[in-house]
Automatic annotation (TrEMBL):
Pfam families: DUF1178 (PF06676). It comes from Rhizobium alvei. This is DUF1178 family protein. It comes from the Bacteria. InterPro entries: DUF1178 (IPR009562). The lineage of its organism: Bacteria, Pseudomonadati, Pseudomonadota, Alphaproteobacteria, Hyphomicrobiales.
Length: 142
């Protein structure tokens, strides 16, 4: 997975995770990457310093101290994720297989959620299967 710092044309800064740089390019071309603050689809990568990990570094968790605006955004995001889950079939570990069946017309088109490794997700994207990762929200991990 590749982590990019992104910025919209209205100077809102946010982050995104992508299976590959080609995945980012593809999603940008299709207008799938939008600013979570204003909805603008005019998004670009920001200059980033490389992240070099040494054996002595401990794994860090990225965190957000939330003010009311951030709490509201997380609440809206939670509503969207819940609606997606309510209107999709959870196929668990069979996600890559079921997504391919739909993509290749071997199964009825329907919304799916499930689990895929980063390698499986990258392979699906390279095959042209349109997938998106659901975000892990604060209450999901606390």
């Amino acid at each position: 997975m590749i982590h990019y710092s992104l910025q919209c044309d209205r100077d809102h800064k946010f982050e995104g995770w992508f299976a590959s740089s080609a995945d980012y390019d593809s999603q940008t071309e299709r207008g799938l990457i939008t600013c979570p603050a204003c909805g603008s689809a005019s998004v670009s990568k920001m200059l980033m310093a490389p992240n070099v990990t040494t054996g002595r570094q401990k794994e860090a968790t990225q965190a957000l101290v939330m003010d009311n605006a951030h709490k509201e955004m997380i609440g809206r995001l939670r509503e969207i994720v819940n609606e997606i889950k309510a209107n999709a079939e959870d196929v668990g570990e069979r996600f890559p297989e079921e997504a391919r069946k739909i993509h290749y017309g071997e199964a009825e088109a329907r919304g799916l959620i499930g689990k895929a490794t980063p390698e499986e997700a990258e392979a699906l994207i390279e095959e042209g299967v349109e997938i998106a990762a659901l975000p892990m929200l604060p209450d999901d991990i606390n």
